[in-house]
Design goal:
By secondary structure, the chain is mainly α. The chain is built from 4 helices and no strands. The protein has helices at about 5-20, 25-35, 40-55, 55-70. The longest helix has 15 residues, at about 40-55. The radius of gyration is 11 Å and the shape is globular.
Length: about 70
């Protein structure tokens, strides 16, 4: 069975965050995710979880970006 689209988007956020694409691809994909129903709580939990894998500096940058998008 295919995973839900929202889960696929959350996985993509993780990959983009890991690749340090904050200025290139991540903003557009965060906007698309929001338009497709990803909540502020879901993106916050995803970024928090990924912080332990990709590092806190990248995660803090992603938090600030998500904060602007989910205002």
């Amino acid at each position: 069975k295919l995973i839900k689209y929202i889960y696929a988007m959350l996985i993509l956020f993780g990959v983009l965050l890991y690749l340090d694409s904050l200025g290139t691809y991540l903003p557009a994909h965060l906007n698309i995710g929001k338009q497709n129903g990803i909540t502020k709580a879901e993106i916050s939990a995803t970024i928090t979880h990924l912080a332990f894998c990709v590092g806190w500096p990248k995660s803090w940058s992603a938090f600030n970006l998500a904060k602007e998008i989910w205002q």
